[in-house]
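Handout for the seminar on molecular recognition.
Each group receives one record of this type.
Step one: identify the two inputs.
Step two: read the structure output and locate the region that could contact flavin-adenine dinucleotide.
Step three: write two sentences on what you found, then compare them with the reference statements printed after the record.
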Amino acid sequence: MFEPSAQIDSLLTAVSLRQSASAGMRAMMQRQAEFPTPLVARLTGIALDPNGRDVADQLMDAYWSDEPRQDSILDTSGTDREVIIGSGFHAAVYAAVRVLSGHPRPLVLERSDRVGGAFAMTTRPTFYLNSRNRAGNAGLAGDQRASLNYLPGAPIQASALSMAEYQTNSDMAFVIRLTLAQFADVVTNAEVLSVSGDRSEVEIDMDSRTTLLAGLVIDARGLGDPDDHDIANGETILTFPQFMQRMAGMWPLRGLRRVAIVGSGDSAKCAAESFLGIAPQPLMAAAALDSVDQIDWYSDELPTSCDEWQQDIRGRYQAIGRYLRPDRLGARRLSVLSRRARPVGLPGAALIDGRPAVESRHPRARRRDRSAAVEGRPRQRRPPLPGRPGR
Ligand SMILES: Cc1cc2nc3c(=O)[nH]c(=O)nc-3n(C[C@H](O)[C@H](O)[C@H](O)COP(=O)(O)OP(=O)(O)OC[C@H]3O[C@@H](n4cnc5c(N)ncnc54)[C@H](O)[C@@H]3O)c2cc1C
């Protein structure tokens, strides 16, 4: 095992000095002998205690966004340094494996102010991952003794953070963030615009920052931005990340009666779970106040009946299928409409086929709450980073 990095060390000290945040860490120290090292026991205790995790998350954000620290890291870059673009799961895997193989800590450039990539799109849990929560090392799908959400080298694994059948995005995000705190120097709000160079030297152009030199660049920018993000307006038509941001806030479904989902992938399925109330519980939301009556799901790739759903769809998303069945009075909350749709955003409404995708329950709520169709379509393939003109 490894010694904690300076960032992890200062995080442990800061948490232990706060009585309200350190209860989980102190409790877990009683079971220290069951962990590989005291460091793992302390980090697991912090992660399992909501107050401890909250404080740890804030400390990491403050550390990564500290401008003097960012400046001094960027000043020391050179051709002996590895730079990773993006701070998601793959950045964390690469950083951990490289450092544990004896290489220096890589520099991670993250365009947003939040480290952790797709799983960290919200600080609160908003969606479940799609592979089962199992202890153990990495393995192949179908291997009952292997964990598919295993992050090699991580200080703690996501399987140590809950007993739930499926992990939440924020559990995985916390593991990714701790891994980067241990094995990388991260600079946030650093968007890479272009990369150019040859085998011995690479120049990295960033938005509003000086050009950086590196010996090797790892492109870990993920799958790309949501397809059709140009038609999303964030209010009546939302991309999946925008919708998840909404689900992380207070009363996310307030006033909504009828909604639409467009697309068939995991993002669309997670959006359906949020509308049906089978996703992680949102903050301050209650079925008595804010449940959605009708969900129209536009996809020509999904089953339209409960029986077909049970046969065709993987276990993780089986619970959705029962809402495709009419209740005893013949009403169905969820309908799959076997066609593609392109919503049109108007002020205060989203239209599909010329009719509103959203109806609000109360006139007052309609004015206040103008939500809409969720675009759960696949992501665009990330374009190659352009070289700089003239090189
Ligand atoms: C609903 C859902 C469920 C999923 N379930 C699972 C699961 O169970 N198991 C699993 O393994 N995977 C799952 N995935 C897929 C998983 O999210 C991705 O495989 C994983 O996040 C990819 O990691 P990444 O590091 O490649 O990219 P990302 O996590 O997308 O991170 C890329 C990072 O790069 C940054 N970036 C982009 N461009 C730039 C730039 N120019 N300059 C600087 N930074 C930049 C972005 O801001 C982002 O932080 C799921 C995805 C979804 C949507």
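Reference statements: Residues 254 and 290 are 5 Å apart (CA to CA). Residues 237-375 form one domain.
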